[in-house]
Amino acid sequence: MIDQLTTAALVVTVLAGLVAVAARDFLVSILSLSSASVALAVYFYLAGAPIAAVFEAVVAAGLVTVLFLFVISLTETDAAERISGAKLPLVGLALGLLLGVGIVVWVLVDPTVGGRASDVAFAETLWSARSIDLLAVTVLVFVGVLAVVRLTAEQLEPESDGETGPTAGSREVEP
Amino acid sequence: MSGTYLAIVPLVALFGGVFGTYLAGRYTRERSTAWAGGIAVVSLLVALAATALLWIRSLPIEYALLGEGVGVRVTALAVFLSSISCLVGLAATVHATGSGDAEDAPEVYFPLVLAAAAGVVGIGFAADLFSLYVFFEVMAVATYALVPFAVDRATAVEAGIKYVVMNAAGSLLAIFGISIVYAHSGGVLDFATLSGELATTTGPGPLEAAVLFLVVGFGVKAAVVPLHTWLPDAYAESPASASALLAGLATPAAIVAMIKALAVVPDGVSVGLLLLVLGGLTMTVGNFLALGQRDLKRLLAYSSIPHVGYIVFGFGVGFYGGFSVAFDGALFHVLANAFMKGGAFLAVGAITYRLAEIEGETRTLDALSGVGYRMPVAAGAIAVAVLALSGVPPLAGFWGKLFIVLGSAEISGTVGVGLALLVIGNSFLSLGYYLPVLGALFGTPTDATRVVDRTPVALAVPILALTAGTILLGLAPAFGLDLVGSAADVLQGGLEVAP
Predict the structure, then answer these.
(1) For A66-105, b where at least 16 C-beta lie within 10 A, e where not — what string?
(2) Mean predicted confidence (pLDDT) in A60-79
(3) Cα→Cα distances B110→B18, B286, B418, Å
């Protein structure tokens, strides 16, 4: 069981990595990169490195995703629009999928079986050994969301209190 | 020990403030700036009070959230960073409430300011290398959004892009450096034992690579030359209170984070020499870049680079010869910098705020000519700040530089004398761009500066507070040295905790 999971995690990592490079849509790219990190974290865990797995999940899947979302909302209004608009179901689906993978692994893997997984459980590492980091990352993600909201909001609004900037002006919609 | 929960209070107060100010800004009538600002001030005051209570206890205090695992460790360094963070945060918050920096979106602005302050507090409180990184990121991500806060101005967004891209790349290098340390120490990241663990591993080997990654990774945020190119735009384009927060708090805190990570590296790796060279380069290049700037805010932004240089140089001298006076000097300059740079940027913000009501061009030295007669508080604060920044004696900037010079002179032979002269020479060089500022502020008034209104009270309060800090710290340096000395000892001792 562990063996198949290991292989599956590696396959998902590689596939998601390929999608991240090949995708034309930034959002798909970011989300698949994030999936690749989660799959890699699963692999780390299965290989007996729970702390490395937590780092990978927190840093790569959490922080780096926030950073990329930032850069994109800064660079292209189109991309920002896509994130907040039509692709919302996609975001939800991808996040649900990530959560699903996590739960499945959690249920399937019993660290006492197989002897390859370390005796320190992933959950224990995440929730009690590094609780302070978890708190900080919660704030970080919240701040990241606020920032993305700020950086996209005004550009998407057709009018901004009388002073129509260049972007706002070109976007005005006939009533 | 009973009552150790106090150790987590500063962080929890600020984190709570992040969510509290969001709710207050979002759900009060007309997205009230006053409510959100008020809650931000309260949470900063709670954090400051808790920090003061921690300081009178016997340190270090450890606390883990669920009673086990990695938590926070309050050392003198933590108290030091937490105090600076709360003070600069308070000044920036009050200024933002009065000046309209946050007017567009108080429900976003204040949470970001508090998160940046919380990140700096966390850098001090972090008990292991990974927590240090996570809190560093909290600070960094909060400032990523503060720089381009005026999203309708293209130049601000451009500055923001530059800032985010460079610093995100730096963050990745830093975490890579941490991973090398992690591999080399056999999975130990806790500061209490890390330096001992690294000292017992055979040979420096990959540690040298780790040091390079850490220096470059944290060095981007710290604006060490040649990684400084984001800084002038970012400082000049962000709102005044955010500039004060960046220059007075975030950038020096990034240096301290870098030093905290490097403090665990054993003597075999030449950290000191590397920092010495980078610090010397940073102050010299920074000073030459600042010469000839005519835009006051941009000039102050450029002049932040040499101060990064002084601090890094001081730590370099400290690591190189193990001189505690240099550590003291570098940390004292971090403290002084918070008051000097914070006050200067807030004062420029106040002048711009008033002049913007009259004319378009508001920040060049020519447009500001004579503004000191109508706005004595703001102009006086800038005058005190630039004198202190250039290291004129009885002001705060003098003592840090003096200790750094004394430390450099302790290095034997002509090298020591040369290094001391480098710092002194750079201080004189900086007069080349600070004196024209003084001349302009109290020069012949222009049509606009002849009729400009006085400094608003809400803006004068934080400006005067920081200026008073600059003066007091200069007249009575022992006031700050108490805390600075203990904090420097923590760094010099490799952050080890006696069992």
Answers:
(1) bbbbbbbbbbeeebbbbbeeebeeeeeebeeebeebeeeb
(2) 68
(3) 7, 31, 46
pLDDT top residue among A58 and B459:
B459
Contact A36, A57 (CB under 8 A): no
Q: Smallest CA–CA separation between A93 and chain B, in Å?
A: 26
- Tokens (6 digits) for B72: 């926070």
Residue A77 falls inside a structural domain: yes
What pLDDT, on the 0 to 100 scale, is given for residue A111? 47
Query: CATH number, domain at A7?
Result: 1.20.120
Domain-embedded: residue A113: yes
First-last CA distance in chain A: 60
Number of domains chain A contains: 1
pLDDT of A6 above 70: yes
Find the closest chain A residue to B72 by CA distance.
A132
Which residues form the domain of A75?
Answer: 2-157
Q: Which residues contact A82 (CB under 8 A, 6 or more apart)?
A: A25, A26, A27
User: Smallest Cα–Cα separation from A66: which of A149, A155, A153?
Assistant: A149
For B:106-145, CB contacts with A below 8 A are: 107-108, 111-112, 115, 118, 122, 127, 130-131, 133-135, 137-138, 141-142, 144-145
Residues of A in contact with B138 (CB under 8 A): 136, 139-140, 143
Q: Is the dihedral of CA B93, B95, B101, B103 positive or negative?
A: positive
Distances (CA, A) of B136 to A12, B142, B211: 31, 10, 17
**Joined tokens for residue A149:** 């909201």
**ipTM for the whole predicted complex goes beyond 0.85:** no
Give the pLDDT score at B494: 76
| Selection from B373, B345, B331, B378 nearest residue B489 by Cα | B331
- Across B171-196, average pLDDT: 85
Tell me the residue ranges of DSSP E strands in B141-254: none
Question: Can you tell me the mean pLDDT for A121-143?
Answer: 74
In a domain, A169, yes or no: no
Q: In the beta sheet, which residues pair with residue B364?
A: B295
